[in-house]
């Protein structure tokens, strides 16, 4: 007899399955919206519909500078990020009904970035469950979720379904 998956594993598996649709060469991310035990939507990161994605047109990288603290000292750090793709969490919010989001849970393969966290914080959801950390924005995002009263959990021991995990490039 096989062991039945718990709900967190079941829905995070679905987020990872959604991520397999991504064509981003840097990171495949998937997200699902759940109310109760009902799946209300799924999304992944990618270019807008009808527009060439990163696999066809290459990444559209921009350079950004941000202050980072290291050893009690602030320093300016140069980062690159792709702006061709819409993040999975953003697509999820674009393609689900705002009424359905009230009190719902978002399962996402990766900890949301600052921009996605802001959008999710304003969407009416009550919880975010994720697997892979995103250290760049981690402290800011955790503080925001605490301030908003949104449950924010990482499933560290979670194992994604075979064939769904992609190498993360920074």
From TrEMBL:
GO terms for molecular function: tRNA-specific adenosine-34 deaminase activity. Residues 6-152 form the CMP/dCMP-type deaminase domain. Its EC number is 3.5.4.33. It comes from the Bacteria. The keyword Hydrolase applies. Its cofactor is Zn(2+). Keywords: Hydrolase, Metal-binding, Zinc. This is tRNA-specific adenosine deaminase. The lineage of its organism: Bacteria, Bacillati, Bacillota, Bacilli, Bacillales. The gene is tadA_2.
